[in-house]
Amino acid sequence: MTFVLTDWMNPQLLQVEQALMQWTDPEAPAGLGQAMRYAVLDGGKRLRPLLVLAAAQAVGGDSASSGPAALRAACAIELIHAYSLVHDDMPCMDNDVLRRGKPTVHVQFGEAQALLAGDALQALAFELITPDDGSVPPLVQAALAGLLSRAAGYQGMAGGQAIDLASVGLALSEAQLRQMHRLKTGALLLCSVQMGAVCAGQPEAKVMTALRHFGEALGLAFQVVDDILDVISDSATLGKTAGKDVAADKPTYVALMGLAPAQAYAAQLHQQALAALDASGLPLAQTLALRALADMVIHRNN
Amino acid sequence: MTFVLTDWMNPQLLQVEQALMQWTDPEAPAGLGQAMRYAVLDGGKRLRPLLVLAAAQAVGGDSASSGPAALRAACAIELIHAYSLVHDDMPCMDNDVLRRGKPTVHVQFGEAQALLAGDALQALAFELITPDDGSVPPLVQAALAGLLSRAAGYQGMAGGQAIDLASVGLALSEAQLRQMHRLKTGALLLCSVQMGAVCAGQPEAKVMTALRHFGEALGLAFQVVDDILDVISDSATLGKTAGKDVAADKPTYVALMGLAPAQAYAAQLHQQALAALDASGLPLAQTLALRALADMVIHRNN
Predict the structure, then answer these.
(1) What is the sign, positive or negative, of the torsion defined by CA atoms of B242, B244, B247, B249?
(2) How much is the pTM?
(3) Which of residues 233-252 of A touch B (CB under 8 A)?
(4) What residues does each domain of chain A span?
């Protein structure tokens, strides 16, 4: 059985880009729409949307991954990710001026508009998954909004950012570092997988547990690879400032473990993620996209 | 038929305060919970929660206003309101140091934590209305999340703030001013009424239309009174800096119309709001709390 990721991925990416373009209104008042679109369109790997669509396919096959719920969930989680980058880049946070090779939103539109654009993107994420046109069952809408709000908030991404903020210059243990990343980046990656599954109906508990294990391992692997890339890559390849974790004295897996052990740890997490899919009982053919995305996360260079 | 607002209101306020205290976790990571609680607890008139509960009662009687959906919706909209104040007060926006007589969140906790606390409060609002304990039907959860996201986002509050930001020092027409306020403050007040109604089940179209008219008139009246108070009141009574609209050269109804015509306009909107309730067909007794809240909005001094 051969599976070529790009054959699966490219039409999905096209669909996501078109939907994001359609659902971010350039006519939103007083330049807000332009700032929102600048933050979202034409950039980013779209890993989270791809995970949503791949997880929907893993659980429900093509009909689930091509349905309106999965596309809306895919775009919603990307909006949450995009808003977090906008706010993260602001002067009071990481004070970054470059993102995906472009000036950051506050550099381009001013701090006040960046703040508002982030806020509006978060609201829009919940708007996308609660359409009033009958295309997504209320049960699915409620489940999606429940998952997304918890992953984005104090128990998830925002909580992880607060830990990150408080930990600069501190010597974290591996357990503390893992907790920070589990919330900061892991929660949203796990949520992508869970949202995709929920779009395919009400999966049995065994499947949801396996997908949780997959999502947790993948989320952690993502961060370990991120820390490795910050050390071994350059700004042009990354599309953002390389070496900034070291410069900011931020705790990283590389700082904690050393480079080679961090690479070995990433490989181990990769295998854990694939093993979770093996244990899910889902048809192998339906999980190929999720497996290929896990490979991509490990082997990416930006 | 006598109705004493405080007799109705005080138990509701107690319930809302207790729920907000329960649902904002002081253990949220790295000080985030403390900043979130500081932003929400022990302050504010709780007008929006009261509108939710009063609207639930108007449509469904005591059983609706005392049910879990209404309390969750009441707290959710207050969290959205609270987050908007936190972000609004930040240096890149209004740069306010005083709110409800206390230092603003960024003064107390730093800008980065204020930004995160606002973000986390928005997510928590959606978390509250999507409980996974079976207490709120999925149909109601989906309807609440749909209403709240639209009222908070680019078509609502965030859009209004963008217009506000862009309009400082500009001469707005009354139509432009009304549009700004319809989004900036009106959308959330209207949403409070709509969320309350939805908590009582699926009200008929005639009722929803009447409540929309009520909420729109009330929202506009609220802003006109706000502009009047900015001119005629002092900082101690307001609990925030008086005269700041004039100082910032912001467009207001008083600036546009003059003081006495603005007062007459507020009285006219008050009557429109009450007339909408008359036209709703709802039992008079069930609408007394909504009517009394409308009176309070007009006659408040802070």
Answers:
(1) negative
(2) 0.95
(3) none
(4) 5-299
